[in-house]
Amino acid sequence: MNSSEQAAGRVASLWRYPVKSMLGEELDASDLTERGFVGDRSYALLDPSTGMVVSAKNPRKWARMFEFRAEYVTSPRTGQPLPPVRITCPDRAIATSDRDDVDSLVSKHLDRSVHLMVSAPEAPRYEEYWPDIEGLAHREKVTDETMPSRTFFDAAVLHLLTTTTLDRLQQFYPGGRFDARRFRPNLVVEPIQGIDGFLED
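RE: above sequence
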């Protein structure tokens, strides 16, 4: 940072999500590439009945995804093969991606047949549920959404969230619980004192 620049805040935490839509792991540091943090959303579940990537954006079908947590057995490195991922299920049972029964174990907890993938298809898609809220592009509807080719990202490869956004959401809905992990950001930034609001915009 040169003398003409001023810090807007500090990085409060770093996160990586080895399996799309599962809870992830907090990091001290990470390599950053043109595809985001190394190892971020490198695995995903596939719904064989639809050919869609499993996404918590359709909570009516995949509400239990937030009850799973994924972490790498060893830290992934740039340019190296991905290590296996360790999945902690809702009942605390643990499966690793290199086990033959990982699909059946995860499927049991989701009450649906799923397949763990490490290679994204050419044109991945996922389902998104739109609640009945005025101003949304759709209301009370599930739509098919496209993802960037050969990735498991919904859109951008890096997701930033500020603590002021969480604070503002809490003000709007005091009875809610706005945990940063619910939004699965890669960077949680705490702005300098006196800055508030939805700074991501």
